[in-house]
Design brief:
The protein is an all-alpha fold. The chain contains 17 helices and no strands. Among the domains are: 68 residues, lambda repressor-like DNA-binding domains (434 Repressor (Amino-terminal Domain), Orthogonal Bundle), CATH 1.10.260; 128 residues. 72% of the residues lie in helices and 0% in strands. It is elongated and about 95 Å long.
């Protein structure tokens, strides 16, 4: 082995062992400058240091002094950049290296796992949703292949559960977790995933409320369309019930102003249906908890009174002759709690 190959080999072994130049030097009783010179191919370690050096690096003296195989060279390259790339968040570089290694060693399990893992890590960093899902889909496929080939591959199984959660496939993740033998680890992944989803929903709701307040103060047709899109994207969570109801009321108002009788009635009917979905008839006392995420939770009675008030607004007076309007009004009134 020539000096330059030894220097690169030594540096890779030291990094793999998790030792800094200073830590290795202290354990050997030499200066950090000496270790630096070895790794820069300036000179060789003294013969008396070879055996203790090998022991500290977790290899034999022969392994320390033997030129790495091509596969070991790939491993050296990985160990050389992994720590720095993780610190910078440069998972694209690690993914490229894993893919390059697999062109020469397509069946290598370690690099196949690394490729799947870097796809997952890169997905977590991208802001492009399409690209994020593409990377997660690739990661899922690669982890699945590893698990099929090696059912005892714990790291691949746990990461597959995590990748499914990242794509919103909670049911699939839970079903897989039940089949895998590493219940403690997979349950931990599921709990963390649920906590992240809950935190994300809170952030979505918080942002949605801020935007909805702005939109509802506008009251225009365009604002209604944006409100509808926002509620749809947020899934109309219970915390946004008032905005869901008010959207239908705004639709009814705008259509009423344009003299669109049927459109106004349709919006009113939808309003009552939305309210009914949150406050089921004949069981209003059981629904208070639905609003516990609002700053000042309205009672079930207040919800129905709000709907009743909406139906009785002056701007709808001209519609009372509509065949369906009295029935709708009586139906809403009939569900008012005593």
């Amino acid at each position: 082995m020539d000096l330059e190959i030894f220097a690169a080999h030594l540096r890779a072994l030291r990094q793999k062992a998790g030792l800094s130049q200073e830590a290795l030097a202290a354990r050997l009783g030499v200066s950090a400058q000496s270790v630096s010179k070895w790794e820069n191919a300036s000179n060789w370690p003294e013969a008396a240091l070879i055996l203790p050096l090998a022991r500290l690096l977790g290899v034999s003296a022969d392994e320390l002094l033997t030129e790495p195989t091509p596969r070991e060279e790939w491993e050296r390259r990985w160990q050389e950049i992994e720590g720095e790339c993780w610190q910078r968040g440069d998972h694209a570089a690690l993914l490229s290296l894993a893919e390059a290694a697999l062109k020469e060693w397509p069946g290598d399990r370690a690099f196949r796992f690394r490729r799947a893992n870097e796809e997952y890590q890169l997905a977590a960093l991208t802001e492009d949703e399409t690209e994020r899902l593409r990377l997660l889909h690739l990661s899922e496929g690669h982890f699945s292949e590893l698990l099929r080939e090696s059912p005892d591959y714990e790291d691949a199984g746990v990461m597959l559960v995590q990748t499914l959660l990242g794509q919103g496939k909670r049911k699939e993740a839970e079903a897989l977790a039940k089949k895998l033998p590493w219940r403690e680890k997979t349950e931990l992944v599921l709990r963390r995933g649920k906590a992240r989803e809950k935190a994300l929903r809170r952030e979505i709701t918080k942002t949605a409320v801020e935007l909805l307040n702005l939109l509802q103060s506008d009251g225009s047709e365009e604002a209604c369309s944006l409100t509808e899109a926002l509620l749809s994207a947020a899934g109309e969570p219970k915390a946004l019930v008032w905005y869901a109801l008010n959207l239908r009321l705004q639709h009814a108002r705008l259509r009423g102003e344009r003299g669109e009788s049927e459109g106004t009635m349709a919006a009113l009917e939808e309003l009552v249906n939305v309210a009914r979905s949150y406050v089921p008839p004949r069981a209003p006392e059981e629904t208070g908890a639905l609003f516990d995420s609002l700053p000042a939770p309205p009672s079930p009675q207040e919800v129905w009174l709000w709907v009743r008030g909406a139906l009785a607004l002056d701007c709808f007076a001209a519609l009372r002759a509509h065949p369906g309007f009295p029935d709708l009004e009586r139906e809403a009134e009939g569900h008012l709690p005593a």
